[in-house]
Specification:
Layout: H1 14-22, E1 29-37, H2 57-74, E2 78-87, E3 96-105, H3 108-115, H4 118-121, H5 125-130, E4 131-140
Antiparallel strand pairs: 1-3, 1-4, 2-3
């Protein structure tokens, strides 16, 4: 019997980070986040953040958002959209995402400053505890075409 290990994507790889920087995006960067939550949040990596009673991954992610928004806004970014997901209309039938989130950052430099901010990082354990799997796609805005 062959055992397959599921690959989870929680943090960017060094190669993905280099590729992101090499894109040389000018102006706003929109981050498309697809998130799948754990049934029960796993605070093994950050026991100091663990609530007294077990909580769901979605609840842990809400704690992450509450912690993160002030630092995101301070850095020149903001949350543009947050919504519930589900199964794809077009795409793999066995793939689902619980939340979809769009984050706008004013530029790549402000995104990097935000993502390395010590106070922000002190609460990132809520995100790690919450997420079973994720995708993050940096999007460069294009001017809207008018006719």
């Amino acid at each position: 019997m062959t055992e397959f290990k599921t690959i989870r994507y929680i943090e960017p790889s060094q190669r993905a980070g280099m590729t992101f920087m090499q894109r040389d995006i000018k102006g706003n960067v929109i981050m498309l986040n697809l998130l799948r939550f754990r049934d029960v949040a796993d605070y093994t990596a950050t026991p100091e953040l663990k609530p007294e009673e077990p909580i769901s991954g979605a609840e842990a992610f809400n704690l992450y958002i509450e912690h993160t928004l002030p630092y995101l806004r301070e850095s020149g970014g903001d949350m543009m959209f947050l919504g519930t997901g589900g199964a794809f209309l077009i795409g793999p039938e066995d793939e689902r995402w619980d939340f979809v989130m769009l984050i706008r950052q004013s530029n790549v430099q402000s995104f990097l400053a935000f993502s390395s901010h010590q106070e922000y990082l002190s609460g990132i354990g809520h995100r790690t505890a919450a997420i079973e799997d994720s995708r993050l796609l940096p999007i460069e805005e294009l001017p809207l075409l008018t006719r």
